[in-house]
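Lab notebook: predicted structure, single chain.

Context: the supervisor wants predicted structures on file for every construct in the current expression panel, including those that have not yet been purified. This is the next one on the list. No modifications to the sequence; it matches the entry in the shared construct table.
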Amino acid sequence: MSEEIKKEERSLNFLEEIIEEDLKTGKYQSIVTRFPPEPNGYLHIGHASSICLNFGLTQKFPGYTNLRFDDTNPVTEETEYVDSIKEDVRWLGFEWKNERFASDYFDNLYAFAFKLINNGLAYVDDSTAEEMAVLKGTPTEPGKDSIYRTRSIAENKDLFTKMKNGEFPDGSRTLRAKIDMQHINMLLRDPILYRIKHAHHHRTGDKWCIYPMYDFAHGQSDSIEEVTHSICTMEFVPHRELYDWLIKNLEIYPSHQYEFARRNINYTVTSKRKLLQLVTEKHVTGWDDPRMPTISGLRRRGYTPKSIRDFCDRIGVAKRDNMVDVGLLEFCLREDLNKIALRRMVVFDPIKVIITNYESDGEVLHSENNSEDEKGGIRDISFSKEIYIESNDFMEVAPKKYFRLAPGQMVRLKSAYIIKCDEVIKDADGNITELHCSYIPESKSGSDTSEIKVKGTLHWVNAADAVEIEVREYDRLFQVEDPTDEEGDFKDYINPDSLKVVKGFAEQALKEAKLDDRFQFIRKGYYCLDKESVDDKLIFNRTATLKDGWMKDQKKN
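Prediction complete. Output recorded below exactly as produced.
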């Protein structure tokens, strides 16, 4: 066995090891997984791990993955969320074999419920939620049977039919599994299978007024689709017994549940309820606000599918929940953007430079789009005697080893010429208004014969045709690592400086920017065009800064 194969085997996560063994022993010839989101909100970075895991397994092993919407609660579910989820999964680079909805199986689930009733394993309960809570007991105290638990099979069938026909009001009755009110696992103390809810469903309309609970719909839907490996997060470990009990007693395809650890990311929240609060209370502009951890927010921020897939791969699959440093996500992002981002020059705080000995009306220079990409090509850049540089790239009184522009000092203009500062022009109040410089004609980038060596290189923009742009500089939404672990309301810890809007002057090439393009503003950071951008008002979002603090911290540790 080669060292490469040995290395590959050692790198298998525990789920991959299980699947490999299942295939090796002939338990399965191929596998089926599913990604089963509830369409009650937008997907976030936590869901990305599940997406990458479920689809990744069927890319690694023979089989396929279904996309199944867990649409069993009509009150909170909307078609908008269905559409956004499909867009997110595809954007991440995955395609499902079958698109399914739990609502596709409502007739099947109703028949399954009847089977349990017929076998004496389910009953209709008239108890209120409060009464059931009391009877359920506690983790240290056994529960007590409902007075309705002894109803006859015939009475339960009649009542359940009437529930379906809409003859009872919301909350008046439930269908419960008859398991064991003294079971050590409280989820097996006669769990609710169906509840009455007169609500319009986004797909089935008003056909149903009873809806299955998650625990009843989930495993049975898996079984109908012959899912071999039903993968969910660790909070569903206690649910596995009920999952198995229902499949066994219904005598249906034996899908099996496996659990992996949820990975939380610091400086954000991923609870759908909390994210909805941020949206409805207008702390953010919407689900796709670039500060949100939603996949649509990350996409609008400028994240790439590859960077998110890489992040999910790096955090891996484990059996214990933990907090992941958002710096790792940003590291994965920079790794990808450095290879693909188009280089452009943008000046945020301009100071005018007049090149006094430049006598031409102007010329077109050339600069590489990305030095990391051999096929990146070059672009045209206009140059004339008046340009803008960053004001902080000039110091009137410069310290030793200052390699930017200063009186009597030379620098190279990126992809242009070497210039020397000859004179500083000020207004009546002593403020610098412009710099007068001279250039070295023989120092043109790509054909430099001047033999002059300078240590500093500055980005710049041609003043005559500079494009004014709006730049939205995003930072982390929260000031603390875990806002849900702090005292008071989690929203009290929102970072007031999570968004700063500044103006910039850009080279002409940015006028051709498209939504899918990714840019590095030279010496500034990574940026992308925002969806609100229009021809006469170009808007760019800062995706990430150039500095990578996470990698530096890793080297220290």
